[in-house]
Batch of 2 targets.
Target 1
Amino acid sequence: MFFVNCGDVIAGFRIQLENGWKISVQFGSGCYGSNHTGWEPDCFDWNDNLKCAEAQATLAEIWALHDSYDPDKKESLPSEREQKNYYNAHHYPENPIGWRNSEEVVKFITTVSNLPLPSLRIIGFEARKNDTEGKEE
C-alpha cells in the first residue's frame, strides 16, 4: 500500500510492505534531505490543473517501522535495556537516515523488504551487540 503526503512544509511517501514493515521517505522542511530549511527554488509548486501540490527533491530522509510496534508495550517493559531492544527490533535503523539519493533509497527499500519479523531481530545482532557494549576483552 502507498501513502503520499505533500503540503507547504513537508512532502514524501510511505510504503506498507507485505512483511509488515512501513518505509518512510520524506523531504521538505525539517527533514534530513533536500529542502531541509525550506523549499529550494522550483522544488514545490501548487498545480491548479491537478488541484494538488507537486514537490521534488534530490536527497531524502528514510526510516522504517514495523506495523506491530506498540509504544505502550515498550513503556511497560521492566528495564531500560528491554525497552531499547524492543524499540530497535521494530525500527530500522534506530533513527532516521538523512541525505540519501534515489539509488540509496531503492537499496534501503530492498533491504527492508528482506528484514525478519521484529521478534527475530530482538534476539539477533542488535541484542548481541548491546550485550557486548562496554565489556572489556
Note: The chain is about 30% helix and 35% strand.
Target 2
Amino acid sequence: MNLVYPNPLGSLPIRAGDALKIIKKFYKISDDPSATAAMLLDGIEAGTGQADDLGIEGDTYFIVLGQMMRMLVALQEKLPRKDRRDIRDRLVRIYDLNKNIAWGHGDQLREVVRAVRRLSR
C-alpha cells in the first residue's frame, strides 16, 4: 500500500507499478487468491483515495489501478462465495466515496463493481 500511496507529506515517490508487480509475484509464488485479492483491494482503495485527495492526473497511475481492478475481477471465480461478497461490499464503498473521480476512473470502478456483483451471486 505504501508504494501506491506513500505518506503524502513525505518525499517518497508513488510507485503503483511496482506495487502491482509485487502483488503479481506474490500470487504466482503463493497461489493464494484470497490474500492476493486483499492486497489488490488495499491498492485500489489507497490509489483511488490518493487520486481523489491529491488530484493525481497521471495516465500511467490510472492504468495500473485499472490493471489491479481487472486482476481482482479475474480472481473472483477462485474465491469462496463469502470472500466475493466481502470484496463486492468493499468495492461498493470505494466507488460510493470516489465515483466522481476524473480520468474515467469512476466509470472503471462502476464497471468493476458490476462485474464483481455478477460473480458474487
Note: The CA atoms of residues 26 and 35 lie 9 Å apart.
